[in-house]
Predict the structure of Crotonase/enoyl-CoA hydratase family protein.
Amino acid sequence: MDLLPISTPHCRVERDGAVVIVTMDRPEAKNALSTDMLVGLADAWTYISAEPEVRVGILTGANGTFCAGADLKAMGSPSGDEQVRRRAAEIENYHWKGLLRDTASLPTKPIISAVEGYAVAGGTELLVGTDLRVVGESATLGLFEARRALFPMGGSAIRLPRQIPYAFAMDVLLTGRAITAAEALAMGLVNRVVPDGQALSSARELAAEVAACGPLAVQAILRTYRETLGMGEAEALEVSDAIGWPVIGSDDAKEGSRAFREKRPPVYRGK
């Protein structure tokens, strides 16, 4: 894999062909959020959206931990890295962009969480901002904010009840208790639970499945979901048609049909 220059001291961004792997890399603090990490995350999401050959991103944490949430001191202190200080000044709302909360700048391509160990508070909020979720069987999730008289500022009070049944969402949000991987799967909060240590490899397998699909189709599906939230069906179908018909008429769609007829893997070019 190639280490990209947008990496920061607390965020490693690597590319392996069509897949970008983003690693929260502050293991001495259980990968708690910092300015260095959030700037790296914000730049990683921008890179994934902008690079035409990138099809999917994976978000994971170093040393068997996903993310233990916010480190308010580290998030409020200037970085010791000159590149990070410059980017923090240049990126508007880099905190929200890094946390996948800024809806106007969400990645246009799917992001997969690969979770081991703790993914609590801000860690669970990051997971809720991703599109597909793979979790090690001993992982611990949870939104602990209410227990500490705080509020989940990453957007989970809005997003979680839209993603899983209301009663489950309120259980997570209002009790502030820890959630096991098995519970998260039963709630529909995650896609797969795998043996410990295999979350990243399983996420890479899932990423390969996504990357094998037509990129225009994948991006259009994500865009349609996001742009039709809160709409009635008739209005939403109009938006869906406007997004979907150009995909149906694309060169990739022709290639998909041609490859099916010729019984070979398709070669999609995003056109």
About this structure: The domain at 215-262 is CATH 1.10.12 (Lyase 2-enoyl-coa Hydratase; Chain  A, domain 2). The first helix runs from residue 35 to 50. The two ends are 26 Å apart (CA to CA).
